[in-house]
Design a protein that fits this description.
two-stranded antiparallel ribbon, mainly alpha, 2 strands
């Protein structure tokens, strides 16, 4: 990097910033810069901070230091939802009662919940009945298969019927 660019104000050769410590010093002495050079110096300081990896959270800039206004604001901001007003609910009338649209939405949600509960119950009952039918069918098939495998002709008199 050209040596002139290592200054906060290269044309005046003021505020040298060859390293991170000098950048911190330039911030401390920021109030001494002429107001017409303030913006230029702030831009150079921010560029050197980025170059040297100086974090904004590492800085302790006093409230009286004019450089503070050039630092990014680290406040948490919430801009909300487009068209939304603070304290205004979309599904409520000003008196707090529900709009027709919200009543319909809640009713639909309630019916879906009830319907899915009924469907699950019916599926459970159907599954139980179906399993019972399958079990009976398998039992009968296994008995039939067992009966078919018996050599009835060679059985003794203790077998009463086929």
């Amino acid at each position: 990097m050209d040596q002139d660019k290592k200054y906060g104000l290269p044309t005046l050769k003021k505020y040298p910033m060859p390293d991170a410590d000098h950048v911190r010093s330039a911030i401390k002495f920021f109030n001494y810069v002429d107001s017409r050079h303030e913006k230029e110096l702030a831009g150079e300081i921010l560029a050197r901070m980025k170059e040297y990896g100086i974090s904004f959270t590492d800085l302790n800039v006093g409230d009286e230091n004019r450089f503070k206004k050039y630092l990014p604001n680290n406040e948490l901001k919430h801009h909300g939802i487009l068209g939304m007003k603070w304290g205004v609910r979309r599904h409520q009338n000003p008196d707090g009662s529900l709009t027709d649209e919200e009543r319909k939405r809640r009713r639909t949600k309630q019916l879906v919940t009830i319907g899915s509960g009924i469907a699950l119950t019916a599926l459970g009952i159907y599954g139980t009945m179906h399993m019972r039918d399958i079990s009976n069918h398998l039992y009968k098939a296994s008995v039939r298969s067992t009966l078919d495998d018996i050599d009835w002709a060679n059985l003794g008199p203790e077998v009463v019927h086929k």
